[in-house]
Structures are given as structure tokens and as C-alpha cells.
Amino acid sequence: MKFIISIWLAAVLLILTTNVNADNDNQTLPKLAEPFIAPDFTLKGEDGNTYRLKDYRGKVVILNFWATWCPPCREEMPSMERAWHQIKDKGIVMLGINVGEDADTIFEFTGQYPMTFPLPMDINGEVVEQYPIRGLPTTYIIDPAGMATHRAVGSRAWDAPEILQQLEELKTKSR
Amino acid sequence: MLKIFLTFLLTLVMMFSTRGIAVELTTGIDAQAQLPYWQIKDEGMSLRLVQRLPIQSRAFFLARGFNKQQVERIAQSCVFQTVFKNVSHEAEQPAPLTYNLREWVISHNGKHQGIKTREDWSVEWLAEKVATPVQLAFEWALYPTEQEYKPGDYNWGMSVYDLKPGSKFDLKVVWHQFGKAHSTIIKNMQCAEDINPEPNEAL
Predict the structure, then answer these.
(1) Which one, B82, B96, B106, B137, has least CB within 10 Å?
(2) CB B85 within 8 A of CB B151
(3) Percent of chain A residues topping a pLDDT of 70
(4) Looking at the partner chain, which of B133, B145, B153 has a beta carbon nearest the beta carbon of A124?
(5) A151 and A32 in contact (C-beta within 8 Å)?
(6) Cα–Cα distances in Å, from A131 out to A28, A54, A151, A168?
(7) CA-nearest residue of chain A to B140?
(8) pLDDT at A28
(9) Residues of chain A with C-beta less than 8 angstroms from the C-beta of B136
(10) Preceding peptide of A137 cis, ω within 30°
(11) What backbone torsions phi and psi does residue A163 show, to the nearest 5 degrees?
């Protein structure tokens, strides 16, 4: 009798715990089933500098594709900026590739949403077409060997401890 | 003893039976857009469709570089803001979700038709020699025709129903998750009327 009651209580507790966890947001970066070599690119940035993906070999790269008119892109930008301040000196690079807009549009946008990480411009969509992307924002994580290993579709809280830890681990694994 | 065991079993069955087996539909006024929305939620997915006024589409696509005739064609085609999420990380078993808008069916006045996808529009823009950056903005603003979402993934974009403003219709939504196809019909959806809200009204 005591045994059955114990099992019953354990089952109820387990189910209730699952329900509590259901309210938590998922702040992890899903792993790609088939990692692929990240296509290289050379793009001019909104700041006038040139950005080439290959130059970041040996580092973890957060490659985010976005546009100023895209609501979830705008939603995640402040957390990207906060994350950037925490990771930039740790061998992790953040590139926010703007899709289809010009420097003036991006400059105006950064007046409202301060972004200090590089913003390469894919004005004609030639780079976004090389990646398997169907919606904005989409972010690929590229490991130090140049392999795209993780993908996030939709916005994330980039300064969430779980994500920062995942990025750190990727960097450490490569050593 | 048997009574206790049966009570235990019944409790478990009741707890699991209340957890996302039936598709839950909610409708109302979206707090941000101040326009009607339809939302369905199942164990591993959530889909929210919010009306977009033709005037909103005009403003958005004129700013992207389309001409007035093209903008009018989009604005009069029944556009919904669409947010489709894989929320299976909130369920017992996280699982990928896939969909293809070509499987969705719009039923209107006894006729059935598909959603007008990016690819359908692209044929028109190519024929009209619309500039590449303009086409690009349109393509990315529209909801992806097909997609795979890992737990926690989602998109946000416009879906186009190719109906006149104010039209009423039913929408059959199809998605694939937990190793099988799921579908549900959202009844009595309505395209936004072609109205100009007062300046102080939120869009």
C-alpha cells in the first residue's frame, strides 16, 4: 500500500515538475544534424571596413542574418549587443549580415538600436543564398575549423547564460 | 488495494489527457496590432495569424521600392502577419517540426485554393523586371514556403491568401511533428477590410 502511494506521489510530482519547466524559454542553439563547411564571403561593412569569413579561422563565429524591417531581428539585437560586450575578448566573433539594405538604412537603424559589432552588408543577397536559410533572422554558429555546427531560426536571448556557455564550450572543444 | 491502483491509473490518464492532445484555438484582438488574430496551439506547435490592413502593406512595400500598381496588388491580396513556432521544448518530448505552405488549403465560397507563396510571386516580379533588392525584400518579408524548426525555432513573416479585403474563409493548416502529419481547420477567418484607421488608432 505504502509502495503504491509512493509511486502515485512520485508520478504526480514528476508531471507537475514538467509543467513548471514548460514555462521556461528555450535558450539553446540547436545542433545541426549535418554540419557543413561555411561558405566563405567578402562583404563591405556599414562602417566601411571589409569582412572576410576566412579571416576568422581559429575563432567561433556567430553569423547572424537580419534586416531592419524584421520584428524578431529587432527583438534580439539588444541581447546580441549585450552578448558582444561579454564575448569579444574571448575569441568569439559576431557578424550581423544585413540582407538587402544599404549603409544609410542601417546607419539610421543603429541610431535607435546601438550595435557595435560588425555589420557586413549583403545588398544583393548573394551570401544569404549560399546558406540554407529560409527566414530572418537565422543565425549559424561556425566553429574554429570553419564548420557551421549549430543553427537558430528566430530570435534568441544571446546573453542568456545557457547560450554563452554553449559558445564557450565550442571554443574550448577546438583546443 | 485494487481501488487505490485504479485511482492511480485514472489520475495519470486524466493528467496526460489534459496536456495538449486537442488543438486549442483562440481568437481576439491582438494587443499590439489592435487587429483580429487567430491562434492555434497544439502539444508541440503554436501558430498565430494577425490581420494586416491593406494600408499597412501599401506603406511597407512602397518603402521597399515597389511601384504603386504592384503595391496595390499585394495590398488587395489578403495579408496576415504569421508567427509559427516549434514549442515542443515545452512538451514532454522535444521534436523537430516541418511544414509546407503548399499543403495548406483555403476554402472560400465553396472553392479551394492554396496560399500564394514567395515562389508564385517571384514569377510575377521576374516578368515585370522588378529590381533585385526590391524582390529580395519581398522574398524575405513573406513567410517561408517550407521550413524545419528545431525546438525553440520560429519565423515571423507575412502569408498571402489571394482573396479580396473582407473575405471570409476557412484555413486548413498542416504540419509534421512527432513522426506524423497533423492538421486542423481554422473556421471563419477574415481578411482585413480596406479601411483607413484614424491617426490615433494603433495599427
Answers:
(1) B96
(2) no
(3) 84
(4) B133
(5) yes
(6) 21, 15, 11, 24
(7) A135
(8) 80
(9) 99-100, 124-125
(10) yes
(11) -70, -45
Chain A residue numbers with beta carbons less than 8 Å from the beta carbon of B7 are 8
Using CA atoms, how far residue A8 sits from A3, A30, B4, in Å, is 9, 35, 9
Contact A71 B15 (CB under 8 A): no
Binding-face residues of A in 100-129 toward B, CB within 8 A: 100-101, 123-125
> Domains of chain A: which residue ranges?
26-173
The pLDDT value given to residue B92: 80
Model pTM score:
0.84
Is A4 in Cβ contact with B8 (below 8 Å)? yes
Query: pLDDT by residue (tens digit) across A91-119?
Result: 999 999 999 999 999 999 999 999 999 99
Q: Are A96 and A67 in contact (CB under 8 A)?
A: no
Interface test with B, best of A105, A127, A134, A139 (most B CBs within 10 A): A134
- Looking from the CA of A71 toward its CB, the CA atoms found within 13 Å total 13
Sheet strands (E) in chain B: 24-29, 36-41, 45-51, 79-86, 97-100, 105-108, 111-113, 146-149, 154-160, 168-177, 180-190
Burial-class residue B14 by CB neighbours within 10 Å (0-12, 13-18, 19+). exposed
Chain A touched by B2 (CB under 8 Å): no
Cβ within 8 Å, pair A12-B150: no
Set of cell numbers at residue B118: 514567395
Helix (H) or strand (E) holding A141: strand A138-142
Domain ranges of chain B: 24-190
- Find which of B86, B87, B90 to mutate to test the A interface (most A CBs within 10 Å of its CB): B90
3-state helix, strand, coil in chain B (%, to 5): 30, 35, 35
Q: Which residues contact B21 (CB under 8 A, 6 or more apart)?
A: B43
> Which parts of chain B sit beneath pLDDT 70?
1-21, 198-203
Fold of A26-173: Glutaredoxin (3.40.30)
- Most B-contacting residue of A8, A19, A27, A66 (CB-CB within 10 A), to test interface: A8
Check CB contact under 8 Å for B137 and A67. yes
